[in-house]
Every structure is written in C-alpha cells, then in structure tokens.
Amino acid sequence: MKRLSILLAVMGAAASPTYAAEQGERIEIKGELIDTWCYFSGVMGGPDAVVGSAHHTCALWCSAGGIPVGLLGEDGKVYMVLKIDGDDTSASGDTLLSLASHQIEADGLYYERDGLNYIVVENVVSDNGITYRNHEDYGPVPGFALPEPKE
Amino acid sequence: MKKLAFTLCLMAAPLAAPLAAQDFSEGSEAKTWNLYAEQPARFDAKVVDILCELTGDCPENCGDGRRQLGLLRAADDALIFPNKNSQPVFSGAAEEMLPFCGKDVEVDGLMIEDPDVGAKNIYLLQKIRETGASEWTKANSWTKKWAAANPEAKGKGPWFRRDPRVKGHIERDGYFGLGLEVDQEYYEENF
Fold this sequence. Notes:
The complex is a heterodimer of chains A (151) and B (191). By secondary structure, chain A is α+β, with helices and mostly antiparallel strands. Chain A has helices at 2-15, 36-41, 56-64, 94-98, 135-138, and strands at residues 25-35, 69-73, 78-84, 103-113, 116-127. Chain B has two domains: 19-139, CATH 2.40.50; 150-190, no CATH class. In chain B, 30% of the residues lie in helices and 25% in strands. Chain B contains seven helices and six strands; from the N terminus they run αβαββαβββαααα. Chain B has helices at 2-16, 50-55, 94-97, 142-149, 159-162, 164-173, 180-190, and strands at 38-49, 69-73, 79-84, 104-114, 119-130, 137-138. The longest helix of chain B is centred in the N-terminal third of the chain and has 15 residues, at 2-16. Chain B is globular. Chains A and B meet through helix 1, helix 2, helix 3, strand 3 and helix 4 of A and helix 1, helix 2, strand 3, strand 5 and helix 6 of B. Chain A: Residues 1-20 form the signal peptide. Chain A: Keywords: Signal.
C-alpha cells in the first residue's frame, strides 16, 4: 500500500507540472536579430522577406513598439531574446533596438518551453552589422517603410 | 489488482495525451486579422514575467514594463507568448498586460501556430480582464502610453514616423540600415 501511495504521488506530480526555474543550457549561436511578429504571423509576407535590410525599418518600428525580438539562428530556429548583455529590457529596449537586423554571435543560456526557444544572451561575441542585403530583391518590406521622395 | 491497473491506466492517459490539442476557440469574440495561421483563442491564465518564469530572476511588478510578459494558461500550464496587441501599428502586448502582473485573467485574441516558421503558442492579445471582472479591457492602449512618454514627438502621422529613437537610427544608418548612400542608390534606381 505504501508503494502504491508513492506511485500515486509521483503520478500526481507529473499530472500537474510545475516548472521550476532552470539553469539553462549554455550555447553559442550565430544569427540575425529579427522582429518576431512579422516572422511568425506572415503579416508582411514570407519569412525571406521579413528579415535583413529589406525589413530593417519595420524591425526598428517593431522593436521600439515592444514586439519581442528573436535571434534567427543559422539552425533555422528562432530564439526569443529575454535579456542581452545584462539589459533585461526585452520590451522596447535600447540595446535590442540598436541591433535590429544585425547578425550577431551570441553566447548565452538557452531555455525551451512549450515549443518555443528562449535565450538569455550573456555576451554579444561579435556584431557583424546587417549582412543580409535582401532589399535588392524585395525592396522595402512593407513598401511604405521607405517614404516616396518629395517632388 | 486488476482494478488498480485500470485506475493507473486512467491516470496515465492524460500524461500520454497532452492538452495541446484542446480547442480554445469556444466563446471567443476575437476579430480576424486574416493571418494564415491564426485561430481564435479565449482562455484563463496568469500573467507572468517570462524571464522570471524561466530563470528565477524576478524583479518587482514583472520588471515595471521593461520585460516581455507571458500567459500561463490555466487549462494546461502552457506558457503563451503574446507578441502583439490589437493595434495595427507595430506595437507589442507587454504594456497591455503589465497592470495584470501576477493576476489571474481571462484573455481573448488570436493564437498563431505555424510549424514551418517555428511559431508555437504565439498570441495576438485583443482583450483582457481579471478573473471574475465583468468589463473587458481592450488591448489597444500602447499608442496612448507612447504619446504620454514622448511629448516632444507630438505631431501628425503615426507614432513610428515620429519616434525619436527610430528617427535617430534612420537618420544615421538609413532605411535599409546600410548607410545613407545605399538609400540614395535605391532612390535613384527605383523612383
């Protein structure tokens, strides 16, 4: 009976999980800091068009507007950035705004929860600026990001 | 013993079949954005500071607006990430949820799930209310808060054309972020 009680207690705990804070897994990852809403929602077009120089102005708008910034890794995964270089202002923060569309190499702690990837960037190892010059293919995305020249 | 085995099987069943397949659209009054992967979703949740939830780094009042906030869904304990408020102006959802930090709430909006781009538990928040409250709060206050915080930027046009920080970056690096000469080249070739 004692064994049964223990078994039931273990099963009960598993049935109502509590996610204690974790240490995170140290990773180094290279990728572009993107605006996640446009990337995930498709509101401005396909994923190739809502990154890089084509989408830079929109990435500034979204970052300043408090939309979460993600690190689109070379592995194709999006890592939601919760903190970067000691700055926990993940909603409209200056650090993330200044790195909009930049390719960086990040050293940090990785977390996964309910299908989303998260990263606490402890150190920006390198900031390579904007490396994906896709405005030559797509123009500005959205088109109105670039004001028409005054007559 | 047979009865015990049966009981254990019943208890184990929910573990093997998680609640992810639940339909949260019942009762939703969310307005469509005509997005490819949107689904109306209305559910009960607790408003949490995501960084705190994952790492244990927990400042007062969910970081007072600095941090991204999440919704810990009551039905299955899933952490939902609201990326967007209800205004179509490049504005997030954290500011809308901050008054509800740590509280149990009901929310209505659109869930975005698109495995092709890794979108899972991404949410567009349209309205929120504390559990038991009768009145909803629309998730559309971001621009008013921005205007209050940026009185020097008062003027015509949408906020994102007037935001001092955004303007500073564009004046320095151009609309493509590659320097003003790249913008100039684009203008010359396309207009």
